[in-house]
Amino acid sequence: MSDLTELTLAEARDAIASKKVSSRELTQGFLKAMEEARVLNAYITETPEIALAMADASDKRIAAGEARPMEGLPVGIKDLYCTKGVKTTAASKIIADYVPQYESTVSQNLWDNGAVMLGKLSCDEFAMGSSNETSAFGPVISPWRAKGSTAQLVPGGSSGGSSCAVAARLALGATASDTGGSIRTPAAVTGTTGIKPTYGRCSRYGIVAFASSLDQAGPISSTVRDCAIMLKAMASVDPKDSTSVDIPVPDYEAGLEGGVKGLRIGIPKEYRLEGTAPEITAIWEKGVEWLKAQGAEIVDISLPHTKYALPTYYIIAPAECSSNLARYDGVRYGHRAADPKDLIDLYERSRGEGFGAEVRRRILIGTYVLSAGYYDAYYLRAQKVRALIARDFTEAYKKCDVILTPATPAPAFAIGEKVADPITMYLYDVFTVTVNLAGLPSLVVPAGVNDAGLPLGLQLIGKAFDEATLFRAGRALEIAAEFKAKPEKWWRG
Amino acid sequence: MSVDKDTVRRIARLARLKIEEERVEPMMAELNGILDWIEQLKEVDVSGVEPMTSAVAHNLKMREDVVTEPNNADALMVNAPGGEDHFFVVPKVVE
């Protein structure tokens, strides 16, 4: 086989199972590709020794006929997931040297399924961002470029290292996490596939916390099938996360080709937003036609509180963030300010020096909306609006099974373009954030490219714990879209 | 509702987050920009709506009240800046 890194995760699995290729060969291929692509800044930490040791162990198991579902498949891990003995930074200066003494449940599940770790992938600092520009280790650069341009584009965020690595073929798949769109936005702008499962499907244990009622782990990979394989391996009920839900994880891959005949697809009128790029509107209309042509029934639905989702999110997420990030005190772990004059000074300076601008902003907003006298006006009201947003979906699902929407309001933008005004950046998550508030699963698949050759994604939203239907509908979109575009490997020089 | 410079200093203090004096005014402007935008939630009629406190409806699990983690003080201290033996070290708090 010529370039092993061009295989999908499912193809690589089958090649390994039929002994056409060893895990070591495959892993070496990715390690070499990573080395050549360092200019993209996707990985914060590469772990070649661990990768090769895991690959060799996998090859032994394969030889012994003891292969597990992801045996020998090299993946990247978002640097928000604690990995025992391997530096985990959350892309923040405040824990830039933190070495966890325990493993996150989701990454452990991957290793227990035979996967191989290539390294730790960059993201926005504490997963707060939509473009991977807030990382303390510098922005991640998208492998995609507009036709005829060398301008650097964002890979989306916060899981921008994950989307970049999959799009540039620096991993077969990657773990990611999604609080307001952090799996789906990066997938949409890099021509990759990503799923945010239902809240509670994956354990949050060992994943650096941002907003605990919204955070959910999920994969980014190159196809719907690859995501189905990865999510099956990642999901579990976990006694260490009381919000993980004890509902059996189905074999998503088995049901993938079921088709959409008779499936009711809801099209929410509130997602027709002014300011959406014309190519996004066009691809959404195409998506509707594709599903209709395969026998789905198209239903008009209404999600009336959609416009309030982002402001609601920017109360609830910072409130939970200010509480979660209180643990970084310069005492138990992380950055500690030099020569503190007293304990308060130690706390204030350690945190002031360790956190980046966006994280500081969110901690202050969160502290304000939770402070005495403002709690009812902001936080309590936001929780009530959140209930209304969730109720919108409950009502809509009386009429449809799956909802089809755009994933982002525009294709990838240039690095630096949106950093000046936080709200412009926040608005980029307008189509993704409702799902987190309602706790629902949502899948993004690549659907086409615009005139400049940049990828465009479509989003499917499902009922709680019905990821199986989502994968089936996503597969139908994938078949119709025939997305074959790949970024040119300009970084190879 | 908008915040003034004293409020920025007060919430920074509550958050134990050092904000340099020259950053107070720009931070005030940034926070007010976000808070003004959030104000639109005031239009929503929330009368009679119960606040949503859980992303997915489920009953909180109970578990046996027993020790589940081994004594791993050594591991806990690995990342402590300035930790000594099994103690976290902080500046003197009692005169």
Automatic annotation (TrEMBL), chain A:
Residues 25-470 form the Amidase domain. The active site is at residues 78, 158, 182. Its EC number is 6.3.5.7. It is an enzyme of class 6 (ligase). It catalyses: L-glutamyl-tRNA(Gln) + L-glutamine + ATP + H2O = L-glutaminyl-tRNA(Gln) + L-glutamate + ADP + phosphate + H(+). InterPro entries: Amidase, Amidase_CS, Amidase_dom, AS_sf, GatA. Pfam families: Amidase. Keywords: ATP-binding, Ligase, Nucleotide-binding, Protein biosynthesis. Heterotrimer of A, B and C subunits. PANTHER family: GLUTAMYL-TRNA(GLN) AMIDOTRANSFERASE SUBUNIT A (PTHR11895:SF151), TRANSAMIDASE (PTHR11895). Belongs to the amidase family. GatA subfamily. Allows the formation of correctly charged Gln-tRNA(Gln) through the transamidation of misacylated Glu-tRNA(Gln) in organisms which lack glutaminyl-tRNA synthetase. The reaction takes place in the presence of glutamine and ATP through an activated gamma-phospho-Glu-tRNA(Gln). NCBIfam families: gatA. This is Glutamyl-tRNA(Gln) amidotransferase subunit A. It comes from Rhizomicrobium electricum. The gene is gatA.
Automatic annotation (TrEMBL), chain B:
InterPro entries: Asp/Glu-ADT_sf_sub_c (IPR036113), GatC (IPR003837). The keyword Protein biosynthesis applies. It catalyses: L-aspartyl-tRNA(Asn) + L-glutamine + ATP + H2O = L-asparaginyl-tRNA(Asn) + L-glutamate + ADP + phosphate + 2 H(+); L-glutamyl-tRNA(Gln) + L-glutamine + ATP + H2O = L-glutaminyl-tRNA(Gln) + L-glutamate + ADP + phosphate + H(+). Keywords: ATP-binding, Ligase, Nucleotide-binding, Protein biosynthesis. Pfam families: GatC. Its EC number is 6.3.5.-. It is an enzyme of class 6 (ligase). Belongs to the GatC family. HAMAP family: GatC. NCBIfam families: gatC. Allows the formation of correctly charged Asn-tRNA(Asn) or Gln-tRNA(Gln) through the transamidation of misacylated Asp-tRNA(Asn) or Glu-tRNA(Gln) in organisms which lack either or both of asparaginyl-tRNA or glutaminyl-tRNA synthetases. The reaction takes place in the presence of glutamine and ATP through an activated phospho-Asp-tRNA(Asn) or phospho-Glu-tRNA(Gln). Heterotrimer of A, B and C subunits. This is Aspartyl/glutamyl-tRNA(Asn/Gln) amidotransferase subunit C. It comes from Rhizomicrobium electricum.
